[in-house]
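Quick one: co-fold with adenosine-5'-diphosphate.
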Amino acid sequence: MEQTLSIIKPDAVSKDVIGKIITKFEDEGLKIVASKMIHLSTAEAQGFYAVHKERLFFGELVDFMCSGPVIVMVLEGENAISENRRIMGDTDPKKAAANTIRADYGTDIGSNAVHGSDSPDTAKTEIAFFFKREEICPRKDQASSQI
Ligand code: ADP
Ligand code: MG
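Sure, here it is.
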């Protein structure tokens, strides 16, 4: 069992596809074990994306992430990190495989509907960025969940 951080970005929230995106995760076997809607401050967005601070698109990315509310979630499941990335699709929605979230709901590389952690280390850091331990509810009803 793994956990990963997912964000439904401002473009998808404003398109009213929160439910469709969550349904996709659930249909693919990932469980929501923490969730909240927040409006990121500039400092929070800069902190969350600090790894990209030298990139040319950093300012644009931060402004976009602060342009409206987002849903931050912890997803749990077998290979949740790579499964989430597969379900999301390529960073560029135009290159994303059919039926992925970014192909269905993204617009361009800047407005691509969702974020997902890219490694176990990143997942741990990103989950802790948004959630306290007691805000995460692992599915103890699942025999396979040992967390
Ligand atoms: P991913 O979100 O697929 O992990 P990256 O970590 O490389 O992709 O980039 C983080 C985010 O920065 C992307 O989701 C996208 O919103 C934005 N981004 C990446 N590359 C560009 C670019 N060339 N121009 C504008 N925004 C970009
Ligand atoms: Mg990334």
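If it helps, The mean pLDDT is 96.
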